[in-house]
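To illustrate the input format used throughout this study, we show a single complete record. The first block contains the structure-token representation of the backbone; no residue identities are included at this stage. The design step must infer an amino acid for every position from geometry alone.
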């Protein structure tokens, strides 16, 4: 079985390709929950929803969140009552949050609520939260600490970052499917999707048992760089790297993952960095990593799986 660690947009793109290449029992998609929060009384899990809507083929490609063609009656109602509208929730999207919130209130774990929502949308591959315990990303900025959505949506990533904390991570356990996959020794590879290393992959690795599984691995770990040609294709990854004193390069991503990652997949645009990365002790696959079309996603996923087959941990 191949295990993919994913955030939202970049994670979902590769996850769809992996799901096209692998049978449902050959893939486990492990999704970041550090962005999750409670808003307007609803439990919202942005990365789980992006992965789920993308796998179901109903994601809104323009925004990177929400459902294509959704309507805004609920949001208009919130606005009319003077409620908070900085975080937009479409009408169909609302039904996801309502179902999840009700399941959690009834005492069901997030992984069970997620499985139910995914099944409803006809998703056959398994996508699970990294943990059923709450792990909340806190962004440490020059002007203080703030919850992730405050930084990301309300303040549009403007504050300069100084670091990150993952509240609850120390006591968080892997969700059952994750624990089972690693305990059973059935993992052939772990793939870090081209997701933000600091706020998508790091919160997953902050779950102590998950980090231990990787540290004691007998399978290769491969990271697909979210930095292409010195830029993030979407979101604040490159800005965060510069603010943390790192160059925004694929090799700096490789350095950041040193010790946990055996191989990097970098874009053709970054071919010149391959030798630097090899000097870090990592294998390198250079290929087209920008996933514009379904064909791109499938081709990259197939190449990553073939590459995994050639690697030793
Ligand atoms: P978020 O939770 O929605 O921010 O999504 P992720 O953390 O999963 O993904 C954000 C990262 O994905 C950004 O750093 C982007 O540069 C990267 N990304 C998005 N699309 C692609 C792509 O097609 N190829 C690669 N290599 N990176 C991508
Ligand atoms: Ca996210």
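Output of the design step:
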């Amino acid at each position: 079985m191949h295990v993919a660690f994913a955030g939202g947009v970049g994670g979902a793109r590769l996850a769809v390709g992996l799901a096209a290449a692998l049978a449902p029992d050959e893939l486990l998609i492990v999704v970041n929950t550090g962005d999750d929060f409670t808003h307007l009384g609803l439990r919202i899990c942005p990365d789980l929803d992006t992965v789920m809507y993308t796998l179901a083929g109903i994601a809104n490609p323009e925004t990177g969140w929400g459902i294509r063609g959704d309507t805004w009656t609920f949001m208009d109602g919130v606005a009319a009552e003077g409620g908070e509208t900085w975080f937009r929730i479409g009408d169909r999207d609302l039904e996801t949050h309502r179902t999840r919130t009700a399941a959690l209130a009834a005492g069901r774990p997030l992984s069970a609520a997620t499985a139910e929502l995914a099944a409803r949308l006809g998703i056959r591959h398994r996508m699970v939260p990294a943990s059923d315990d709450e792990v909340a990303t806190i962004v440490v900025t020059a002007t203080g600490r703030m919850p992730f959505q405050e930084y990301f949506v309300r303040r549009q990533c403007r504050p300069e970052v100084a670091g990150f904390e993952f509240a609850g991570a120390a006591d968080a356990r892997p969700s059952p499917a994750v624990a089972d996959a690693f305990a059973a020794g059935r993992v052939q590879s772990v793939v870090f999707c081209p997701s933000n290393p600091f706020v998508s992959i790091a919160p997953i690795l902050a779950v102590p048992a998950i980090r231990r599984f990787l540290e004691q691995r007998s399978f290769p770990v491969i990271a697909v760089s979210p930095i292409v040609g010195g830029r993030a294709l979407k979101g604040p990854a490159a800005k965060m790297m510069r603010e943390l004193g790192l160059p925004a390069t694929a090799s700096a991503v490789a350095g950041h993952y040193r010790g946990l990652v055996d191989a990097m997949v970098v874009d053709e645009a970054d071919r010149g960095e391959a030798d630097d990365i090899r000097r870090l002790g990592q294998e390198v696959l250079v290929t087209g990593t920008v996933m514009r079309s379904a064909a791109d996603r499938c081709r990259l996923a197939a190449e990553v799986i073939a590459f995994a087959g050639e690697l030793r941990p």
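Structural context for interpreting the output: The chain has one domain: 2-310. The chain has 13 helices and 14 strands.
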